[in-house]
Amino acid sequence: GTTLKASAAEKGRYFGAAVATGKLSNSQYVGILNSEFNSVTPENEMKWDATERSQGQFSYTGGDRLVSHAQANGMSVRGHALLWHAQQPPWAQGMSGTALRNAAINHVTQVATHFRGKIYAWDVVNEAFADGGSGGRRDSNLQRTGNDWIEAAFRAARAADPGAKLCYNDYNTDGINAKSTGIYNMVRDFKSRGVPIDCVGFQSHLGTTLAGDYQANLQRFADLGVDVQITELDVMTGSNQANIYGSVTRACMAVSRCTGITTWGVRDSDSWRGSDNALLFDGSGNKKAAYTSVLNALNGG
Ligand code: G3I
């Protein structure tokens, strides 16, 4: 193929980008998006603070706009993210106990129901594990409602949208380490007990080196019987950027259950990483060396 999306599709995969809905009116941005990508993830528009600003008052303007753009252009949608310790509305940040648990599960049910049938995969729970060597859960208001909050969220999401793949999504999981092993053990436990989980997202916000066991880590999750996806890929600028992009792409292509790759934005100027210049297109919309490296890897090079 000669584009990211065509080359990925030839291998049965998607190639996606995180989209800030406000940029859909920028012709350069949307031109690249529509020609190169066939999956979108809302960068912020489906998060809790955006969709339930006051308790019980739901608004889906940005998410709906992105879904219609996707449907009009043959793109699938990754929903992001139903529950997360960050970007909670202020009213939820101050809650705890049963009240917070009920509010959180209601949030999952309402949002997944609104978008039912339109989402390829949901990040049901985002970033619930701690960094460092513990391998345990991150402390948060949600975690303090009880260790079973994650499985309760997955069950609610399955009931609301049985057709969506349900993912757990996290960062600093780029190799076999304490954090990724903690998640691995949770997924294994969920599969053994019939908790509905279909996929694990590896955000892959990367620096100047890539873990040597990146592919092996994806494979061990796939071997548990879940799909894996690269969900928020961006890589620090520098002499290794194109190589790392190529290696990540080849790793996904080598794991049959790796169903797609998403970069966390389109142009360097769209990235949360600012001067890291971490994406595949420069601020003027030109293809970078990293783009060529990804395209070649998608095409088997
Ligand atoms: O929309 C408001 C605007 O009204 C206000 O004036 C302005 C002032 O700060 O803030 C705007 O909201 C910002 C929002 O992005 C939209 O631009 C928030 O402050 C800012 O915190 C928010 O950042 C997002 C960040 O998640 C929040 O944690 C980034 O865009 C987004 O790229 C980033 O994405 C996360 C993933 O969801 C999860 N994984 C890590 C990844 C990178 O941090």
Automatic annotation (TrEMBL):
Catalyzed reaction equations: Endohydrolysis of (1->4)-beta-D-xylosidic linkages in xylans
GO molecular function terms listed in the Swiss-Prot or TrEMBL record: endo-1,4-beta-xylanase activity
Keywords: Carbohydrate metabolism, Glycosidase, Hydrolase, Polysaccharide degradation, Signal, Xylan degradation
BP GO annotations: xylan catabolic process
Taxonomy, superkingdom: Bacteria
Active site: E232 (nucleophile)
Span of domain GH10: 1-297
Entry EC no(s): 3.2.1.8
Family: Belongs to the glycosyl hydrolase 10 (cellulase F) family.
Name this protein carries in UniProt: Beta-xylanase
Originating organism: Micromonospora lupini str. Lupac 08
Gene name for this UniProt entry: xlnA
Residues represented out of the complete protein: 32 to 332 of 488
